[in-house]
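User: I've been trying to design a sequence by hand for this structure and keep getting stuck. Would you show me what you'd pick, starting by listing the structure so we're on the same page?

Assistant: Good idea, let's start from the same input. This is the structure you sent:
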């Protein structure tokens, strides 16, 4: 069973939490979303396996919960290695956003979501992944990602998508594709 550090809203550890048990109202756990963009401006999207309890076969970025004793960067690198078999280098990315959520999709989640953006060019060696969480991975253009979102094929609790839609001038916020 996974054990997470439990945080207050100031980011201070106040205890521990076991995955699968109800989150206390006053405690938050740390999660990471890892967006990966290649030199062509495409984003790595992963399709959840059919055996996932929530959102089977939906598309998403790499991500997951930070384990007890980890910091979010360590967790981001671990999640990418576990889910898609890529060894990212810390100097090729960084944290771009922190979100705090009390609820997601009507369920109390109480999470602090550190969102990362990394650059990576290379193969996606799913055969080197240490979990079976990902059914497939694909590099997608901005428009393909938006189409997935608008057609309801992206995990609907991902609210940081707007930060990774780009134009020729770089990143911009695109709130019209975020549905609260």
């Amino acid at each position: 069973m996974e054990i997470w550090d439990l945080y207050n809203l100031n980011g201070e550890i106040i205890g521990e939490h076991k995955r699968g048990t109800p989150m206390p109202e006053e405690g938050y756990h740390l999660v990471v979303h890892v967006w990966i963009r290649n030199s062509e401006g495409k984003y790595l999207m992963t399709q959840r396996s059919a055996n996932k309890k929530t959102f089977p076969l939906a598309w998403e970025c790499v991500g997951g919960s930070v384990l007890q004793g980890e910091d979010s960067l360590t967790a981001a690198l671990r999640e990418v290695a576990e889910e898609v078999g890529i060894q990212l280098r810390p100097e090729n990315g960084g944290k771009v956003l922190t979100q705090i959520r009390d609820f997601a999709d009507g369920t109390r989640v109480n999470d602090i979501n550190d969102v990362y953006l990394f650059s990576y060019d290379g193969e996606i060696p799913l055969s080197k992944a240490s979990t079976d969480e990902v059914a497939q991975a694909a590099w997608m253009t901005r428009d393909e990602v938006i189409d997935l979102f608008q057609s309801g094929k992206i995990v609907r609790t991902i609210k940081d998508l707007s930060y990774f839609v780009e134009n020729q001038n770089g990143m911009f916020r695109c709130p019209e594709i975020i549905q609260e």
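That's my pick for every position. To get oriented when you compare it with your attempt: The longest strand covers residues 107-119. The chain has one domain: 3-166.
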